[in-house]
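User: Need the bound-state model for cytidine-5'-monophosphate:
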Amino acid sequence: MNTVTPSPRSVTVRAPAKVNCELRVGPMGSDGFHELSTVFMAVGLFDEVTVTRSDRWSVTTTGPYAAHVPDGDDNLAVRAARLLARHMRVPRAAVSIRIDKVIPVAGGMAGGSADAAAVLVACDHLWGLRMDREELLYLAAELGSDVPFCLAGGIAIGSGRGERLAPVLARGTYHWVFALSSEGLSTPSVFAEFDRQTAGSRIPQPEPSPAMMTALRSGDPEALGDALINDLQEPALSLRPGLRAVLDAGMEFGALGGIVSGSGPTVAFLTGSSEHALDLCVALTASGVVDQVTRAKGPVHGAQVLAGPSRD
Ligand code: C5P
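Assistant: Bound-state model below.
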């Protein structure tokens, strides 16, 4: 017997932040993007995004970062919904998008990309498209270098602009502490500073390091702590010199490793257990060098529909 599934009126999806355990930056290509080799890990800080059928397009953001998120057509979440609607020729596609924002804005943790990934998954559900994963990943890459990974989650190698994903053999759960800054850093300006610092030198082709692959395969947080590396760290530190004191404080308080996350300014510290992570949060908060501290485990899943969409 055929049953007609009523179409949902709204769908909520949550999508994770990322940290780059390794970020090697190669030369800039003719498209203006740098060739990357990166190891992404999705971590348990999630934005929740709800899309609801509507007669006009709109986006609203709640949470502590709401004031920093654009509310027009340049919002990446709106662009994601419009791109999917155009690509699949969805009639009367207008949706209102509500973003409950937990991931810092312009923090080097793929906050905007997570929202775009969430919207792709949510609209796919809302409109009953049942798109296959490859097609969603293709559209995600059109929106931004980190969007495919926010769809995929887990741990993955990113190459190209960061959008081409390959699996990594990894085990273990990792306990991170994130030192957040109250003011973001623009990704293009950090890449521009990288170009300035490396001008005139030959930049090698970026590739994953054996130390990182071995660390992830072993599941040993000490080995991972030692293997953390980010070519955007020096550029981010030169634009935000105060971050050096944050890195120093975390290491002094016993982190297994510390790194600027992506293009920053978030600083990520690896610890050995959830107790260790809590201790480090307390110590960093007390030190006064950090604006705000939070902790999260990784790896976690990519963008996922939350149970119980409301229906007409
Ligand atoms: O792809 P996404 O929109 O996240 O990139 C933001 C900016 O970061 C780009 O416009 C570019 O300036 C810089 N970028 C880069 N090389 C990459 C990824 C990003 O230069 N592989």
